[in-house]
Amino acid sequence: MIVGSRLKELRQKRNVSADELAVAIGISRQQIAKYEAERTDITSDTLIRLATFFHVSSDYLIGLSDDAKSKKSSGHVLTWEVDTKKLLDRVSPETAARLIKTFGLHVTLVNSEIDVLEMLDQFSPTLVAKFLRELGIEPKFKNIE
Question: Which one of 17, 20, 42, 99 has the fewest CB atoms closer than 10 angstroms to its CB?
């Protein structure tokens, strides 16, 4: 079982809501709440994702060590393929950009097509621009007459 207070502390230090963390690692917000309240066991996959995102050892998260830092680096890099449309259906561009920045994620566009006009129908140009910049795309908006 994960030490709930440690997970909550890590999340608060990073200024990430339970909703944002849940989206980032692919579980529900309710599951995050259960982990923090120590009401359920954690799967090994979720434990690895949390340890990776917070740059701590899994031993720290489950209470086997008081040292948060991992003693060794495996050299492995975990990658997740994220469908930007699905992500934006769940969170705003601002939240998506904040998640990318907060977790220090490196984003590689697999499918380089982003329907900016559709995004602009739902979100402000400022939020869309911030999201695109986090993806490494410098937006250039022109007045269309």
Answer: 17
Residue (of 42, 97, 57, 51) closest to 78 by Cα position: 51
Task: Return the CATH number at 17.
Answer: 1.10.260.40
pTM over 0.70: no
Within a domain: 67: no
Contact 3, 78 (CB under 8 A): no
Is the pLDDT confidence value at 128 over 90? no
Q: How many domains does the chain have?
A: 2
pLDDT for residue 37 is more than 80:
yes
CA atoms within 13 A on the CB side of 9: 9
- Please tell me the distance from the alpha carbon of residue 74 to that of residue 87, in angstroms, as a whole number: 29
Question: Domain for residue 75, yes or no?
Answer: no
Domain hosting 30: range is 4-62
